[in-house]
Amino acid sequence: LSMKQVKRPGLKEANNPSKDVAEGFGAQPDAGDMDTFMERFSYSYAQEIEAQVRTEGDDGYQRTTTFGFLDIAPFIRNGMEAIVQDSFTQCFVSKPRESWTFNFYLVPLYWVGVIIRYFILFPVRCCILFVGMLMFAAVFLAGAPMPPRLRSSLHELAIRMLANAFLMSWCAVVREHGAPPPREKGQIFVANHTSVIDVVLLLQRQKFSLTGQQHGGLIGFFQEYVLSCMDNLWFDRLESRDRHMVAKKIKEHCEDVSKPPLLVFPEGTCVNNEYVVMFKRGAFDLGTSIVPVAIKYNKIFVDAFWNSRMQSFPGHLFALMTSWAVVCEVWYLDPQFRNEGESSSSFANRVKDMIATQARLESVPWDGYLKYFRPKPEYKRMRQQVYERSLLRRFFPRGEDKEKDVKDLKADLLSVPTGTRRRTTSTS
């Protein structure tokens, strides 16, 4: 995905219209986009082969069945580009901590800090969290038999108490800029996503209804039992039926002012708080007002990014509770509305750029769900066929006219992916 994209003359852009709101919450990359990319890659590769054939002299490079170094040069260059220019993987890796020089007077201080964090602060923070959970359970159960209005108020108080207990267990320092607007009809809050603790930071200020991926384990327990009083909407983004059901419920939820405002993380996955990846357009297709929320963590004490592939959620909580503090800033930006004639994708990109600018993050166009998918074998075979045709043309030229041979080579290379692309699309 980091290859340079050279547009082929007359090549049509992938057509990906917003057919349904539910599709905006989907995870599958669009097949047309992938096919268009492969055509661009094939055209770029054909240009490289053309330039290589033109510059090779008959005396310096014999056209025989013996391979030369230049035969693999395009792959070496593309591989180096993929490593050096990779801006996709960098969105989902923790930034390495800067090492500092150990010396005779800093080492004792370092170990004193370790003893304080792990053997003094950590037990105290566990007690604070345990007491907060007990208070949450007491208030939550006390509100169960109450009338609906009083029960809702007590449950909201219990959620805020639990959120503050978590923040105290991390010694969190949260600096807020602005205030969330009052609840209105047709209103959705959207924020960049770094970790599950993003929810805790926002819930300590006011009650939100959440929508997002259904999890298992400890997070699933909180989703199913602890946060059940918040009118949340959990679903599996990989299931089309779940996406359509949630899209319908989101529309109904936004119109009901008696329910808490909806909070959406349109990136759909945790990003390392250095970048903002593509926003899913589902929340921007509803014709509602969008309230952008920008969250920026200071990594001086701990990296708040949760890499779910490398670290379990309890392990993530342990890292937070054994750090000195969690420091972050939260900005509540002005509500945004979709302009006349503006597509939902353009609206989502505009809001994403606002959040990135405010939180000093880099905005990238990648779909965050691509990290869960591997390229199809068909795409690998397409590249192999392109390389095969190039070798056949180089080793077995069809004529003495070099210019004509080069033109035939380009035409042959560009004809390979086309048929393969149709078979790939029909198969998928």
Number of helices: 11
Rounded radius of gyration (Å): 27 Å
Span between termini: 20 Å
Question: Structural class, from helix and strand content?
Answer: alpha/beta
Strand content: 5-15%
Described by strand count, sense and barrel closure, the largest sheet is: 7 strands, mixed
Helix proportion: 40-55%
- Global mean pLDDT: 77
Q: Number of DSSP strands? A: 9
The outline comes out as globular
What string gives the helices and strands in order?
HHHHEEHEHEHEEEHEHEHH
- What does the oligomeric state look like here? single chain
Query: Which spans have pLDDT < 50 for at least 5 consecutive residues?
Result: 1-23, 416-428
The largest sheet has its strands arranged as: 1-8-7-2-5-3-4
Which descriptors would you attach to this protein?
428 residues, alpha/beta, seven-stranded mixed beta sheet, two-stranded parallel sheet, 46% helix, 10% strand, disordered C terminus
What report would you give on this structure?
It is a single chain. The chain is α/β, with parallel strands linked by helices and 428 residues long. The protein has helices spanning 31-55, 73-84, 107-143, 148-169, 197-203, 217-226, 240-255, 313-321, 344-359, 377-395, 402-427, and strands at residues 173-177, 187-191, 209-213, 233-235, 262-264, 275-276, 289-298, 327-332, 362-363. A 7-stranded mixed sheet has the order 1-8-7-2-5-3-4, sandwiched between helices. A two-stranded parallel ribbon has the order 6-9. The chain starts with 30 loop residues before the first helix and ends with a helix.
